[in-house]
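Would you mind writing out the residues of a protein together with its fold in token form for me to study?
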Amino acid sequence: MKKTLLTLSIGLFLAGCSEKPTTTEQVKRQQEQVNLSTSIAPPVAKQVPHELTAHGDTRIDEYYWMRDDKREDPEVLGHLEKENSYAEAVLKPLEKQQQSLYDELVARIPKDDASVPVKENGYWYQSLYKGDGEYPVYVRRPTLDGTNEVLLNGNEMAQGHDYFNIGSYQASPDNTMLAFTVDTVSRRMYTLQVKNLATGELLSDELTNTNGQVYWAKDNKTLYYIERDPQTLLGSKVFRHVLGTPQSDDELIYEETDTTFYTSLGMSKDEDVIYISHDNTEQTGTTLIATDDPKAKPVPFLPIEDGLEYSVAKHGSDYYILTNYNAKNFRIMKVDQAHTADKNKWQEVITHDPEVFIQDIELLKDFLVYKAKKNGMLSLNAVSLKTGESYVIPTEDPIYTAYFSGNTQVDTNTIRIYYASLTTPPSTFDINLETMETTLLKQNKVGDEFVAANYQSERVIIPARDGKQVPVSLVYRKDKFTKNGTNPLFQYGYGSYGATIDPTFVSHWISLMDRGFVVAIAHIRGSQMLGREWYEDGKMGNKKNTFTDFIDVTKGLIEQKYADPTRIFAEGGSAGGLLMGAIANMEPELYTAIAAHVPFVDVVTTMSDATIPLTTGEYTEWGNPINKDEYDYMLSYSPYDQVKAQKYPHLFVTTGLHDSQVQYFEPMKWVARLREKKTDDNLLLFITNMEAGHGGASGRFKRYEQTAKEYAFFFHLAGIEK
């Protein structure tokens, strides 16, 4: 999908930042100390009018020529390079600040680091980072104190590649083989290979154009994977591969013919069943494949029904079902494996509460644990499957992020949880649900000087223009904050696909807070922070609520004296980049600067072209332009189509040439049209990573080069030069 969440990284804190300026005059004086004007004029793109007609409406797209699906056109690549050169020239006076910031950001990342070991099929699996290595080394060992066996060394495998990513890996049931997937282009098209773990040799099997997932049948020679269409990037075909045979002989066992669905794979905790998941934004389904029969046929758990959403988790001979069946905010049910397709035999376990949104479930030997939100506040709830007794697992922070992690064992009553808040670094806990004994397994290192008590988080509510109450998570450094309207504001938002940006620890936000910024996450409509209705009120024909919520949050934070109205900065990526484009058109003078990363800004043209990757799967999120009412509504907010002759804030726009989610030409066209139309002298910087895709640079350190550039730019505009 075109969605992306903010990349989070945790690390070490460095102090010694300058005091924030407190007046507009000080800001102006400090901005004048470094002049970002340049003798190099911004690139001017040629215009080649291209007519796009639908429903009797003709749009003229002067920059349609910028689309090159092969990414080989010299004129296109040349213009992108000109934009990169221009941005580099403009930012050159800030090189020292950028380098200092980069050093500060990466210093928070421990050079030597390791994940918490996870036990699977008799081995403890772990990922390791060493020294300056950009990529993980995946290892396993038979006991916790045993010797590591290296499975995959990402640093060695990445040599010779500008981009590198290991998608997933899984050992065969007999632990002798390792199937893994690799992407070296950043189009999320993975090559699947198999390694003999005894000899280290790669088998001849090489399966191309996969979605990155791979699972074994129990015979140790049969693999299941999804093939992606090289044009649309939809993964609609599930294949069965037998080791030693060519990919052309692989058996197609399932094909999704409805292009509005995304297809993915999963596996039950007991490894008896592979799940084929079918998802769009309004209905879901699951198909089962038995792993003990290499010739097994896929069996629907329940035929897909309009408006019905569910996901399943196997527990012995039962399946537990998280579903919206007669339950808008979801409930939990269960059914015997022999009767999954008969909803009349589904039994209720956790009843529907219209004020409580149930997000996720985890099953242990004798316990069901589920995540739920009430009024946007998260809780972790445990239910004994023996007694029916239920209780809430206590947490330290009132607003936080938590999810189930590494719960691979069936015969246990210990739940493993990832936990973080805006002031608490990511932590991994084991909780014995019988005794409530809690063990901290790891807390990400942030450095000896980091003191969580120096920072304060808050949950505030801002009324939207239609009366809806929008939750906002805030965090700031106590000794740099005074609630008098003098602090710069950094506001982040997403607001699509029901994806909820929970308050969590973001190491690079420390650099903002230590310079006096208040950081805000606007939990706008389009997410599910306040339940399913909150999502539905921010999609399709209600999409503009997402944009007005974000704007109203900004104004509300100014009114409540959290923010200096002359220093307001906003950031969003992908669908959040659409949000940034919309607010730039709607309220350009409210924001000092906006960062739009891989922004989905050419909504109507993209959604009108089914050959553009992933378009058809988005119809139930944005609409299908074949329908006039949906066409008209999308056109009324599409950032590219709504660019007009007016003043715009400073803009920092990024993309990746090989982006698989939002094609590079969307922001490229948007920037060209902005340069043509805007009436101000504010800076418009457009940076393309010529080697990367939607997620940016692949290395754990390298990705912070872009963040350092953005922050140096923002700090300069805020009058902060250190």
Q: What stands out?
A: Residues 454-717 form a domain with the Rossmann fold fold (CATH 3.40.50.1820). The chain is about 20% helix and 30% strand. The radius of gyration is 26 Å.
